User: Fold this.
Amino acid sequence: MKFYQLTKDPSPRYTGYLNASHKWGLPGVEPCPTCKAGGGWGVEYPCVDLSSLPPHELKKLSDPWPVTREEIERLREVVRPLVPPETRLEPGTMLGPLVGTGLGYFGQLFMQEPWVLYMRREALERLREAGMRGLQGCPTQIRFRTKHAPELLEMQLQTQGQYHPDCLPPNRRPPCPTCGNEFRERPDPIVLEAASLPTELDLFRLRQAWMLIVANERFVETVGRLELDGVLFQELEVR
Ligand SMILES: [Zn+2]
Assistant:
């Protein structure tokens, strides 16, 4: 089985643009006193609904301003009962529907950033009918200033699989004793470890590098057969 990285189609006909953000999320974390690492950048879980939480907690979960590690730990436990069991609750994890405005022309599939995938509802339905597995589309709250506004769903993808150890750059320094930061650099080129890749999903995020959206050969063939546009597929080495 071959595997591919999804990237946006840079063709100028795709003028679609979203000015939007997720309704809730975990804040960033204050810089570590030892290694200065901080901030936050996490996976999107757009199907999560936090609206049952008390207003004072929702206020904290709507402000990305960095907080202490202790406060991140506390907020994780506040949201944990409301998220899927495998959810990675890193600082900066985005939760709930995307809210904002959109304009321009969108393909059947759409990527604005390399780590978020949207589909028009009809594209998702056709892929599901064709037997594609692991596709969870979440409603967005986007107001379009466009004729024939698309109904865009944001994909909530499972995180699975890892890099082949051979492609990982050597660690130049030991992990931070205070926060555990491993100072890992992103491998280039990327090689995936065959045994770690899911056999029951056709589209997923790489667990070790969740910003990487990966499709298998079945998915790529199906997108081509259904003539769904808007993204390109780049084959990844698997060992
Ligand atoms: Zn540190």
Remarks:
- The mean pLDDT is 94.
- The longest strand covers residues 94-103.
- The helical segments are 55-60, 69-79, 121-129, 217-225.
- The pocket of zinc ion is lined by residues 32, 34-35, 37, 176, 178-179, 181 (CB under 6 Å).
